[in-house]
Amino acid sequence: MDSPSSARTGLRRRPERAPVWIAILAALGAAFFIVPLVGLVVRTPWGDAWGSLTSPDTLEALRLSLVASLTSTAVALVLGVPLAWVYARIDFPGKAVLRALTTLPMVLPPVVGGIALFLAFGRRGLLGQWLDSALGVTLPFTTAGVVFAETFVAMPFLVLTVEAGLRSMDRRYEEAARTLGARRWTVLTRVTLPLIAPSLAAGAVLCWARALGEFGATITFAGNFPGVTQTMPLAVYLLLETNTNPEGSFVLSLVLLLVSLAVLVGLRHRWLGSA
Amino acid sequence: MVFAAASLTDAFKTLGSSFETAHAGTSVKFNFAGSPTLVTQIEQGAQADVFASADTTNMDKLTADGFTTGDAPTVFAHNKLEIAVAPGNPKHIKGLADVDRPGVIYISAGPTVPAGKYAAQALAKAGVKVTPRSLETDVKSVVSKIELGEADAGIVYTTDVKAAAERVSGVEIPDAYNVEATYPIAALKDTGNSITAQAFIEFVTSSDGQSILGSYGFAPAA
C-alpha cells in the first residue's frame, strides 16, 4: 500500500534476500503457527458442522459467552477508561506499583487469577464473606462470577490501550477548548474521548476478545454448568476431555478461531502496520 | 507411566513408592485425572503403560478401541459414596434429601466422570431431584470446592472424605441408595515397559497392594 522508502528517497535498493538459514528457520517458525490451524480445518467434520453448531448445548454456550464477554467489556469501559485517564494524566506516589499490579492479570496464569478471585470474592473471601452475609450475594457458580473472572483477566488490555491513546493525543485541542470556555466535562466528552476513539475501540475489541477466550479463571472461580457458567472455551475443553464429542470441540474451536481472526483483521492497521 | 482415576490419587502414590522399594531400579510416574479425560489422553497418543479407571465404562471404551493388551482388565478395588460437607456439617445435612434444600449449594462431578455418574444414580435411587450448581471435571475438584467453602455438599467417594481428613466431614449414604464403584486396571499396548507394567498390576492386586488400598478406605477386589 505505502510506497517503499526507496522510491521516496530516490535511492535504488535491490530487494533484500534472506540468507538460507534465516529463511529455513523463519519458515519453520511460520509453519509452527500454520500447521495447527490447518489441522483444525482439515479435521473438522464439515458434514456435521452445522448440526454441532446449532445443537442446544452449543447455542447455550455461545449465548452465555456473548452475554458474559460483552458485559465484561462494558464493565471494563466504565472502570477502565477512568483508570487509564488517571494513569495518563495524574502523578501520585506509588503509581508505578499500582499500574504494575493492575496490569498483572495480562501475564498471570488465569488459574492463579481464579484462585485469587476465590480468596477475594468467594463465600469465605475478604469481600465475599461480607457480600454473602450482608447482601446474600455469592459469586461462584453464577454468571456474575463469570463476568468477574473475564473482567479481571481482560480489563488490563483496555486500560493499557486507552492509556497509550491518551498519552499520544495532541493535548493542544483540549487546551484550545478550555480557553474557549468549555467546562472540563465538555472537554472530556466533546474533545478528549472523540480524539482517542480509535484507541477506545481497539481497547474494547481486544478486551472483548480476551474475555471471550477466558478459560482458566472462569472454570476455577465460576465452575462449570451449562447455561450458567459454561462458556464456549469451557464447552470446547469439556467436549474433548470427557470424550463425549471430540469432533464437536473441533467445530467450536473453529468458531472461536474465526472470531479471533476477525478481531485481528479489524485491528490490522494497529498491529500489522502497513506491511 | 500409570494413568489413574483422580479418586486413586493418594492410595496410588503410596502404592507407587512401595512398588519402587520392592522393585529396585524401577520408577513409577502417575497422571491423575477424571477417567474420561485419561481415556481421551491415551487415545490421543499419550505415553501410558497402565490405566486404572474408576468405572468399567471408561475401561471398556479403551478396550473396545483396541488400546489395552489382550488380557482382560482386572478389578482391583471397590469404593462407595458419601456426602462431603464442610467440617462439623454446619448446614446439618443428614442425607441425600438435604442436598436439595434451599440455601445448600450442591455440586457434582460431570455426568461423564464416574463419580458424577454414580452420584446421579444414588440421587435417582433416593428419588431426589437436584440440579448441581457446577459440574466439576473430576471428583477431587468437588472436594476442593467444599474445602474452600464455596459449595456446601457434594457426593464423592468415601475414600475422598477419608483423604481430606479434617478438612471435610462425611455424611453416610445408606446402602439402599449407595452405589458401588468398581475399579479395573489394565496394561496398555505399545509400551516399552510391558514387563514393569505387568509387575505393577500384580503388585496392586497382591496382598501388600490390597492392604495399602484398604488403608485408604478402598474395599478389596474379591
What's this entry about, in short?
By secondary structure, chain A is mostly helical. Helices cover 74% and strands 0% of the residues of chain A.
Please tag this protein with its features.
heterodimer; A: about 280 residues; mainly alpha; MetI-like fold; about 75% helix; B: about 220 residues; alpha/beta; D-Maltodextrin-Binding Protein, domain 2; 2 domains; 6-stranded mixed sheet; 5-stranded mixed sheet; 8 helices; about 35% helix; about 20% strand
Protein topology:
The complex is a heterodimer of chains A (275) and B (222).
Chain A: H1 5-9, H2 20-43, H3 46-53, H4 56-89, H5 95-103, H6 110-121, H7 128-135, H8 143-168, H9 172-179, H10 184-195, H11 197-213, H12 216-221, H13 232-241, H14 246-266, H15 268-271
Helix pairs in contact in A: 4-8, 4-11, 6-8, 8-11, 9-10, 11-14, 13-14
Chain B: E1 2-5, H1 9-22, E2 30-33, H2 35-43, E3 50-52, H3 56-64, E4 74-79, E5 81-85, E6 106-109, H4 114-126, E7 135-136, H5 139-147, E8 153-157, H6 158-163, E9 169-172, E10 181-187, H7 194-205, H8 207-215, E11 219-220
Parallel strand pairs in B: 1-2, 1-3, 6-7, 6-8
Antiparallel strand pairs in B: 3-10, 4-10, 4-11, 5-8, 5-9
Helix pairs in contact in B: 1-8, 2-3
What do you see in this structure?
The complex is a heterodimer of chains A (275) and B (222). Chain A has a single domain, classed as MetI-like (MetI-like fold). Chain A is 74% helix and 0% strand. The longest helix of chain A has 34 residues. In chain A, α4 crosses α11 and α9 packs antiparallel against α10. The radius of gyration of chain A is 23 Å and the shape is globular. Chain A is mostly helical and 275 residues long. With 222 residues, chain B is an alpha/beta fold. Chain B has two domains: 117 residues, 3-Layer(aba) Sandwich (D-Maltodextrin-Binding Protein, domain 2); 92 residues, D-Maltodextrin-Binding Protein, domain 2 (3-Layer(aba) Sandwich). Chain B is built from eight helices and eleven strands. In chain B, strands 2-1-3-10-4-11 form a six-stranded mixed beta sheet. In chain B, α4 links the parallel β6 and β7. In chain B, α1 runs antiparallel to α8 and α2 packs parallel to α3. The longest helix of chain B is centred in the N-terminal third of the chain and has 14 residues. Chain B is globular, with a radius of gyration of 17 Å. The two termini of chain B are 26 Å apart. The mean pLDDT of chain B is 90. At the A-B interface, α13 of A face α2 and β7 of B.
